[in-house]
Amino acid sequence: MAHGKSQYLRALPLWAAVVPLVTINVCYLLGVALEHLPACIPYFSGCTSVSSTGRIAPESLISKAGLLSSAVVLAFLWHRCAAFLQLGGQTPSRLILLRVFGYLAVLFLALYSVTLGLREDEYRFLRRVGIDGFALSSLFAQVLFIVLYRPMRIDATQKLTRWLIALCIALPLLGIAAPLAKWAGVPRHAANNIVAWNAFVAVSAYYAVVGRIWWHHGFASEFRIMSSGRATSPSE
User: Fold this and answer.
1) Which residues sit opposite 232 in a β-bridge?
2) Residues 5-34: what's their mean pLDDT?
């Protein structure tokens, strides 16, 4: 049973990192194959938006399945992040904001996923609220995780913590890059699309790094995090 629980916990950040990114790329490639979308490398050319990968069936079915299931996984992930920090000495009161922003990100992602493909103006507005709310809530939760985790760092996670910081900085920098690209002559829609595609990569990479931090602390196997900052196993 313990082994099964360990595998389940380790799968949370892996799912949050991989499945949404794979979902939008699979939907894009399928859309190109069915001639629903133009062929390009959207991360560099911005020829189509992330949302366009889930507007037409059968891509829309894959998109909703991948993103909605990822929203559920993300809720469990932020719950376990709070549990991880509490094991490291953080009090429940200091984790309230982390939980709030983490769960808000989940709700916004679900809203975006449900309204994806619906063409009426009110759904377009809700979809914009969903994706913007997801981005901002995720960023706040990610920054809070870094702040609360820093006192718990061990030697093996010093570099990983710097990666988390860099990925959080990358998101607002991408936001700044969009108007700069427009000023340089890149079409507005293309600039926005490039930012959105690469923001998905940054958010996904963040969860992969969190999973690696858990591994170094032995958290996936429910090892205790000692006050000295050293992860120990039950056998010690």
Assistant:
1) 224
2) 84
